[in-house]
Design brief:
Layout: E1 9-13, H1 18-29, E2 33-38, H2 41-53, E3 58-62, H3 68-82, E4 87-90, H4 107-135, E5 138-143, H5 146-149, H6 157-177, E6 182-189, H7 195-198, H8 202-211, H9 220-230, E7 242-245, H10 250-260
Parallel strand pairs: 1-2, 1-4, 2-3, 4-5, 5-6, 6-7
Helix pairs in contact: 1-9, 3-4, 4-6
């Protein structure tokens, strides 16, 4: 299927590595001009160089995706430079390390998790909407997580809450923007072969593979393929959805969480 995105401008937050970089590569391969927001400058520079090696036009803007001033500045600069923003992938996020049970969780850890995931998703979505409405076309894809859909595991209540909040936001946003030719969807990846997984021991990686019905973890390119489809004209009638891409593993997560807190698993 041809996901022709020639002439479109795609903005990816947290686009310097992992899923975000894979998204940028996939969107660029379909002809989109790619704009990367990344907190770490050297990471973003390496990403742009990799995109260039694939003959993909890309620029990057450094800054904290959860900072309202940064978000507004970048959107304004992108608007002046290209005159349009057609696609937004809200990918910026942080992991749930260290993990905290609720009774031990510092308020600062909770606040930062909500800020990076939920506030950034809100800010970037809000700021791109005038550009999308002007052309009566837009695609917003928000990256949630299987950690929410599977109930979350003990120690990551702040992460599960943030990712769950993204779903509620996405479904409401979809109702608001649908009449303007804009869609908003969320995806929920399971474990993905990123830098985090690369740090696991061989035994841990083998266990992850065994626990998944597909027999392995997800590849970043597979997440990017789903996002690229959702950003295409072929997905114009998919709106307000929350699509899991986890190999069917979420039922395992629910059982694992129950065992860890001493419950009986059916």
């Amino acid at each position: 299927m041809d996901f022709d995105l020639v002439g479109k401008v795609a903005l990816v937050t947290g686009g310097g590595r992992g899923i975000g970089l894979a998204d940028a590569l996939a969107l660029g391969a379909e002809g989109a001009t790619v704009v990367i927001n990344e907190l770490d400058g050297p990471t973003a520079e390496r990403a742009v160089a990799e995109l260039a090696r694939s003959d993909i036009d890309a620029v990057f803007y450094q800054g904290d995706a959860a900072d309202e001033v940064v978000c507004k500045r970048i959107i304004e600069e992108v608007g002046r430079r290209f005159g349009r923003i057609d696609i937004l992938v809200n990918n910026a996020g942080i992991g749930a390390k260290p993990a905290y049970h609720v009774e031990e969780m510092p308020a600062e850890a909770w606040d930062r998790m909500i800020l990076v995931h939920m506030k950034s998703t809100f800010l970037w979505s809000r700021e791109v909407l005038p550009y999308m409405k002007a052309r009566r076309f837009g695609r917003i894809v928000n990256v949630s997580s299987m950690n929410f859909t599977g109930g979350g595991r003990p120690g990551v209540a702040h992460y599960a809450a943030a990712k769950g909040g993204i779903l509620g936001f996405t479904q409401t946003l979809a109702k608001e923007v649908g009449p303007f030719g804009i869609t908003a969807n969320a995806i929920a990846p399971g474990y993905v072969e990123t830098d985090l997984i690369a740090q696991f021991t061989d035994d841990m990686r083998e266990r992850l593979h065994r626990q998944n019905p597909v027999g392995r973890v997800c590849r970043p390119s597979e997440v990017a393929a789903l996002i690229t489809f959702l950003c295409s004209s072929q997905a114009a009638f998919i709106n307000g959805e929350h699509i899991c891409i986890d190999g069917g593993r979420r039922d395992f997560f629910l059982g694992l969480g129950a065992r860890r807190v001493g419950r009986t698993v059916p």
